[in-house]
Amino acid sequence: MEGVESGPAEQRVTARTGAPHFLAHKEGDHVAVAVQDVEPGESRVVYMDSERALGLVVLERVPLGHKVALTDLAESADVIEYGVRIGLTRKPIKQGQLVHVHNIRSARWEKSC
């Protein structure tokens, strides 16, 4: 990480120029994790298992450590990360949107509800 930019009410984490914005754990994952705060617009994703890079248009702000959709996901669709099912969508999610508790639910607790 290169630094923290200060704004009036927030701090923004940025990485060095050329660093990826997101890391995806495995080819076939539906989400990638932000390795810096990402604003809407062009971004870069790198797959950790293959080192393949791809461009992604981010539709909304994605904070450091949060997930972004790498593909369009329908309502009630499985969400794959690490090559395993981690959740189900609560509503449709577009490629480039923030993926968080407002639009997915954990698969871990599915049988306890």
| Poorly predicted runs | 4-9
**CA-atom Rg in angstroms:** 14 Å
The CATH architecture can be given as: Roll
Number of strands: 11
Domain count: the total is: 1
Percentage beta strand: 35-45%
CA(first)-CA(last) distance = 39 Å
Number of helices: 0
Structural class: mainly beta
Looking at the structure, what is the overall shape?
A: globular
- CATH class (first level) name: Mainly Beta
* CATH topology group: Archaeosine Trna-guanine Transglycosylase, Chain: A, domain 4
Oligomer: single chain
Instruction: Let me know the largest β-sheet.
Output: 6 strands, mixed
How would you briefly describe this protein structure?
By secondary structure, the chain is mainly β. It is built from no helices and eleven strands.
Describe the structure.
This protein is mainly beta and 113 residues long. The chain has one domain (3-112): Archaeosine Trna-guanine Transglycosylase, Chain: A, domain 4 (Roll), CATH 2.30.130.110. It is built from no helices and eleven strands. The chain has strands spanning 3-6, 11-14, 22-24, 31-34, 41-47, 53-58, 67-69, 78-81, 84-89, 98-99, 104-106. The strands form three sheets. The chain has a six-stranded mixed beta sheet, with no helix packed on it. It has a three-stranded antiparallel beta sheet with strand order 8-9-11, with no helix packed on it. Strands 1-2 form a two-stranded antiparallel sheet. The termini are far apart. Residues 4-9 have low confidence and may be disordered.
List keywords for this structure.
0% helix, 113 residues, Archaeosine Trna-guanine Transglycosylase, Chain: A, domain 4, 41% strand, 3-stranded antiparallel sheet, 6-stranded mixed sheet, mainly beta, globular, 11 strands
